[in-house]
Amino acid sequence: MRLITHNMLSCNIKGVTNGFPLKIEAEKVVEKEVDFNPDFLRHMFAKIEWKALVEAARSMGYAELPEDSPDATVIESADETFLRKLHHALLELHLEEGALVCPETGRKFPVNKGIPNMLLHEDEVKQTVCIDLRKGNEPTRIRSPKDRVLMQDVCIDLSLQVP
Amino acid sequence: MSLSNGVSLSITTTILHSTSSTFLPKKSPKTSLKEVSMTLSYLSSFVSLFLTRKWCGSVGILVKGMYELWGEGTCYEELRDSIESFPDSRKLPFLASDSTFRISVETFGKALTFDEQRERINSLTYIPFEGKVNLKNADHNFFIMEMDESEENNGLQPILQRRIFFGREVGFADRKLLPTFQLKSRTYLGPTAMDAEMAFLMANQAKAASGKLVYDPFVGTGSILVSAARFGAMTMGADIDIRVVRDGRGPDCNVWSNFKQYGLPTPVALLRMDNNLPPWRSGLNELFDAIVCDPPYGVRAGGRKSGGRKILRGTVDPYTVPEDKRTDHIPSTGAYSLVECVHDLLHLAARMLVMKGRLVFFFPVLRDENGSEVKFPEHPCFKLVAVSEQILSSRYSRVLLTMVKVEPYSEEVEEAARLMHVEFRENHLKWLEKGNIHSSVFKPSDPSQVHTDSKSFKDPKPKYRGKYV
């Protein structure tokens, strides 16, 4: 898993508001060479959360990135030293084995063979509960196809989302 | 098809660039997308251009070649007159004595013997070729293209009048890509791996090119991304099934090896995630240049999303997995209908595509004999620019939808989109009841052959006997 990916991911467990950035627990870091492509880097630079990237690179053992996000002139200039550092941090550092930890809940998302597993467990998935306004204030869980059809009718009338 | 000498015409690079949202004209059921496209590729190659430089490989995969038209006619005398009236200033630079050339004869709908070809080439003595002949690697390639009248032939349209064209090649598609990338020789395949030509077509539709980031949210074995990578794009993929993405069938037989097999750069990232509950951070948007995918139709490989099927139905409350079992626990997944899947895809694309980015995906449809309008999924951020049907059987086909993002994403847009989705799902459910896609694919088409004997009466909805993850 590269740092460019890490910069996009956050924890999406139900109820979590501050799931970014995920802390990296690195067990095995590998460096793989990638062709240098300055146009791609310039395009990506606009989308990166800088602080998160610097912190993540440090936890992977690379501390060459400047603390503050450089302004546009440095990126557009012909001088490639900064771009090379960015290239190395974003694309060439690989987390092969380890975990990504949610800053709010501490939930660990394992990384195996370079692939992060962002799938949630059964109790972390949002469960929608329908409030059937016609029967009063009792929340109704959908238990059978008939309930579902009933709920669909209500929800479409009220333009609400059907679970 | 009338062409005028030397005048530039727009090129139909692929038939998929049709701007109206209608199906292709009805042909006999046996015709596949491939056949129709091959016809048009031959026809569209007879187009004249004002180009002086060679375009190699950057042309859409269905175009056989692009030629500067020097002359045309219904017989060789007319061809001669036509070529002679073509301005010398346009001809002489390519006939120079220090260049090499080659003349080939192409025929459409018939085959010529070697002698017949040579006879035609020799009839061109009135063109002052000064250079030397080089059959392997000439500077300039010339083509005589001949088409005879023919009836409608195996689904191809009839040709009304014999025509002969003579032109200089200015560009060609790298059709050698197809045998190189064909699935037969690919290391890691799955049941839904996309055929190589189709994957290249999808990459063309998405305008995959160097410097662009292409994303596939249903990556599977990576067949579509391989084609996008071949055109120079950086690729990224995700899938809910971790066995397909991470493990493959071994350390040398997985998604990465598919890229290494062709010497292509491996994807920037591969993730395991659920498109229904994506883990993107909240500020992230407008990241991808194109999203190209083949979502699960629910026929052979159904879609899955988080939450076991009993949980989603509410039969069972969500349970907590005990701590000691958590590390190896594979979360259960539940049914994910096509409609919901496409809605999530549109939502993802609306948020994550750059402006003017392209969304290209397949959508299954039932083929209706009375040609009633089939509604496609819509989203307020997107404009549908191409609909291309691939007929799979007499009752079932899939359409490749190409959409371009024209509106930026916002909260209001999301509301409008959700309402559109509810409406679409309503119609889709009604349509599904009339003719279930699953049963269209698997059941016999002639109902009178099914026994009405109560013992062998089959359940109207065939049970899914595949694997549930």
TrEMBL record, chain A:
GO terms for molecular function: protein heterodimerization activity. InterPro entries: Trm112, Trm112-like. Gene3D superfamilies: 2.20.25.10. It holds the Pfam family Trm112p. Coiled coil: none annotated. Interacts with TRM9. Belongs to the TRM112 family. This is Multifunctional methyltransferase subunit TRM112-like protein. It comes from Brassica campestris (Field mustard).
From TrEMBL, chain B:
GO terms for molecular function: tRNA (guanine(10)-N2)-methyltransferase activity; tRNA binding. Its EC number is 2.1.1.214. Belongs to the class I-like SAM-binding methyltransferase superfamily. TRM11 methyltransferase family. It is found in: Cytoplasm. InterPro entries: DNA_methylase_N6_adenine_CS, RlmKL-like_Mtase, SAM-dependent_MTases_sf, TRMT11, TRMT11_N. Residues 442-469 are annotated as: Disordered. This is tRNA (guanine(10)-N(2))-methyltransferase. It comes from Brassica campestris. It comes from the Eukaryota.
